[in-house]
C-alpha cells in the first residue's frame, strides 16, 4: 500500500529463479499458482480482471484445470471508484467471475469497517479468505489459517499472513467494541515474535496435516517502516515455508531468495500494484520452484473467460458512470500530490496544493480552526479543468470519517512532530497536510 519500488528486473516476462526441492509434483504434472497483490480496483475500472481471468484460462488449457490456482494477496477491494461506491462488493463480484480460488485480507480490506469485511468474507466471496494472524481477543483465528489443496498426489498448503500494521493503517476503532476494548488483533506484539510464533505454529500444523509444499500468501511488504513484520523478517524467523507470495509495499519482485532460520532458501515474489503484472509460481514435476511476472498486455483477449469478466465489468460500470462523470467543480491549475520540480510523489513528505486543499475543505466543512489530513490518504492527482465526482473518489477512496475534536496547542504540536518523524529520510503516510496554521 506504499510507494511503488522496482526490485531486480523488469515487468514483462521477468527472469525466473528456481529452487530444487526433493518432492516431485503431482503425477508428473507441473502445478501453477497465479497471484496478484495490491490491485486496488485497478487503473482501468476493473478491466484488468478480465485479463487475469483470460490468463488463468490459458494456463488451465496448458496445464489442466486441476493444476492451476489463482490467489490474491490483499488490498484488492479499495483504491478506486469501483470499491468506494460499493464498499468492495463490486470488486468481489468481479473476482468471483474471474475465478479466484482464495485471497487474504490486506489492511485496506478493512477500510469499509469490520462488519462489511466479514460479510464479504463469509457471504459475498465465492473463494475463502485466509489469515493465520487475524485473531479474536482470545487468540483464535477469525478466518481459516490455511487451506490445503491437493494436486494429483501432492498436497500444497496455502497459509495466509496479514500485516499487523492493519491495526493502525485502518481505523483502530474498527477492531474495538463499543467500550473501546480491542476484540481483534493481528499478533502485533513482542517486537515481531508473536507474529513469527503464530506463523510457525500454522506452518507446523499444515506440514503435520500432510503438506509437501507450504506457500505463504502474505501482505507484509519490504518497506523498512514495516519492521519487524517485513516478509523477509518473517522468513528469517521461521522454517517450513517454501515460497512467500507477498504484497503491501507495492514492490516489483520477480524472484528473490531469502534464507530462513535454518539457512534454507525461500522464494519471495511480489507483483507491484494496480495489476501491472500477474505472478506465476511453478512447482515443476521434478520438484523445482520458480516465480516470474507476466505482463497482462500479453494475454489473449479473445477467450471466453476474458469476455465473460469483461461483460461483468461493463455491466457494473453502467451502474456508476453517470454519477462518476458528474462535474462538481473546476480548477485553473493541476491539483497534485507531486513535487512540481521533480515530478516525484511528495504528499507523504511535504505539503502539496492538493493536500492543503483537502485540509481546507475539511476545515470549512466542520467550521474548525485547524484541519489535518494524512498524506497517505490523498491518493490521486486532478488535472486542471473540470473536476468530477469520480475525481474526488479517486483522491479519497477510503471512506474515512472527518472528526471534530477539541485539542490543546501541545497536542497540535505533538501531531505535527509525529507526522514529520521520517522527514528527510523516507515517505510516511502519516505526514500531515494542514489548514489553519
UniProtKB/TrEMBL annotation:
<dbReference type="GO" id="GO:0016787">
    <property type="term" value="F:hydrolase activity"/>
</dbReference>
<keyword id="KW-0547">Nucleotide-binding</keyword>
<comment type="similarity">
    <text>Belongs to the 5'-nucleotidase family.</text>
</comment>
<dbReference type="Pfam" id="PF02872">
    <property type="entry name" value="5_nucleotid_C"/>
</dbReference>
<dbReference type="InterPro" id="IPR036907">
    <property type="entry name" value="5'-Nucleotdase_C_sf"/>
</dbReference>
<feature type="signal peptide">
    <location>
        <begin position="1"/>
        <end position="20"/>
    </location>
</feature>
<dbReference type="InterPro" id="IPR004843">
    <property type="entry name" value="Calcineurin-like_PHP"/>
</dbReference>
<dbReference type="InterPro" id="IPR008334">
    <property type="entry name" value="5'-Nucleotdase_C"/>
</dbReference>
<protein>
    <submittedName>
        <fullName>Bifunctional metallophosphatase/5'-nucleotidase</fullName>
    </submittedName>
</protein>
<dbReference type="InterPro" id="IPR029052">
    <property type="entry name" value="Metallo-depent_PP-like"/>
</dbReference>
<dbReference type="GO" id="GO:0009166">
    <property type="term" value="P:nucleotide catabolic process"/>
</dbReference>
<dbReference type="GO" id="GO:0000166">
    <property type="term" value="F:nucleotide binding"/>
</dbReference>
<feature type="domain" description="Calcineurin-like phosphoesterase">
    <location>
        <begin position="33"/>
        <end position="251"/>
    </location>
</feature>
<keyword id="KW-0378">Hydrolase</keyword>
<dbReference type="InterPro" id="IPR006179">
    <property type="entry name" value="5_nucleotidase/apyrase"/>
</dbReference>
<feature type="domain" description="5'-Nucleotidase C-terminal">
    <location>
        <begin position="328"/>
        <end position="437"/>
    </location>
</feature>
<keyword id="KW-0732">Signal</keyword>
<dbReference type="Pfam" id="PF00149">
    <property type="entry name" value="Metallophos"/>
</dbReference>
